[in-house]
Amino acid sequence: MFIHTITPEIFSYGPITVRWYGLLFVIGIILNYLILLWVFKREGHKVADLESIVIYLFIGMVVGARLGHVFFYNAEYFLSNPLEILAIWKGGLASHGAAIGVFLAYIIWLLVHKVKFVKYIDLIVLGMPVTAGFVRIGNFFNSEIVGRPTDGSWGVVFTRLGEEFPRYPSQFYEAGLSFLIFFILMWVYKKFYKKLPPLFIMFLYVLLYFSTRFLVEFWKERHVIAIDSPLSMGQILSIVPVLIALIYFVILFIYKREKV
Question: Strand 156-158 relative to strand 2-4: parallel, antiparallel, unpaired?
């Protein structure tokens, strides 16, 4: 098994501290942008639109991720200590909140720039799994969002948590699945994009991301709704987007059959 003794900080210089999580987060954002830049140029779209969208989405992601953590996982504490909501440097970001924040930010961008929803949405989601994957690797370096205890030889002992027993490296499970989703989306895009109906890639991403998130939760230390709840908060929050994506594909399948 692996003994995790890695500190979250890479180095410090005076008041400046560079952390693994921050570095990996930035790498994920930059790679996401470069992927979208390549896609936009390939499709002949305005790069200026992409640059504007990215700013909106970044703000939406950070704000949404923080508020998601606040209200989905520890609302009572933060409502009693509202100033702590702003203390984002202490950690606490939720991927479901990030998804909601990104979606709302994109809607706002559309309204401001008077662009149709379907114009860019199938392209914008292509790079998102890359950012998600690097964030999960950052969580590993931070010894957070850990897996449940295991007896397997692949377990990781997170010594920073004061523990001497191994846990599933669930952060790497999610990171690996995120990168796999990225390759699937890119394959679908390059092979079929011109033939696909609007929103196909977006809903494929939603289905793959949230269904795999639901499954990995079984190996993670879970935030449960109630003591006797069989599902974690992450699983509860994943059900709705998975159902919405499935409804889209069912409707698409019925429509295709009726045309035949």
Answer: parallel
Retrieve residue 62's tokens.
């950070």
| Residue 149, number of CB atoms within 10 A of its CB | 12
Reported pTM: 0.89
| Per-residue tens of pLDDT for the chain, all 260 residues | 799 999 988 888 888 888 898 899 999 999 999 999 999 999 999 999 999 999 999 999 988 888 877 877 777 777 787 777 776 666 667 788 888 999 999 999 999 999 999 999 999 999 999 999 999 999 999 998 899 999 878 899 999 999 999 999 999 999 999 999 999 999 999 999 999 999 999 999 999 999 999 999 999 887 655 556 788 888 888 999 999 999 999 999 998 877 65
Nearest to 127 by CA among 175, 200, 170, 179: 179
